[in-house]
Structure prediction request, 318 residues.
Amino acid sequence: MKHKRIVIALGHNALGTTLPEQREAAAGTARAVAEFAAADYEIVITHSNGPQVGMIHTAMSEFAMNHEAYTPTPMSVASAMSQGYIGYDLQSAIRGELVSRGIARSVCTVLTQVIVDPYDEAFYRPSKIIGRLLNEDEAHAEEKKGNHVTKVEGGYRRIVATPKPVEIVETDSIQALLKAGNLVIACGGGGIPVIEQAHRLKGASAVIEKDTAAGTLADALDADMLIILTGVDKVMLGYGTEGERPVDFLSVNEAQAYLEDGEFEEGTMAPKIRAAIDFVGNSAVRKALITRLNPDGLEWQGTAGTMIGAGGMERVNA
Prediction:
């Protein structure tokens, strides 16, 4: 019998910010993931890395400024470093939880490269703020290196592009690990963005939106379900208004219509809805669930979260 395959995308709330917070959050995440492992699902986990990659980039930049023999760390390398240490905490916590339940499954982290299009429009309009606050001289120095900065309150910040993922390089490796019974952590922080140059891959000065990467990964692996964990129980229509209301189910067409109407805010819910739509597509069997992490187990078969799939309720007016 074919095992059900799921991709779980962990948001910031599932990881914390500082190292102690991350370890504590990873323990709660492990309990939720173990519920699926106990039900014999094939599991792939992706995760955010916003605070972590920013911390790494800032620390390495400061180090290079104060030590002439060292050069600043490229964004692609900072992304790889964040994948490694977040993956370490997650696989350690998940392994411990599985062992405590008598579940014999290995957990591994795959440093994942994601090919992006060098002509993606995002490279011409970088918008993702990273790193620490810069003064005017530091901002000019960044621009001389070919980097982009933007003026913010109190100074300047560096900004990078957020291109769409084209292909996940390690898909075959992840497939092989899943078939061998491993639980896999991959595409951390959206993956390491790389550009193809002949037969080589070169790191790009960019970041990939993690929910978009999770949807691309789920599609490449032909997963049965994409689960996007966030800070709210369900998708809300009319969010922040007197008429806001939670939604249990959206068809792909309904979700697309609401997205086009501007119902979901960019940078928060819109990327999650878009990833769910792209993953489900025209499939009659694929589903996407958007919900809050429950450290005591994911009650996705009940009423928790918003499910996006084929068919469903008629769209109601917002």
About this structure: Residues 138 and 144 are 10 Å apart (CA to CA). Residues 313-318 have pLDDT under 50 and may be disordered. The longest strand covers residues 128-134.
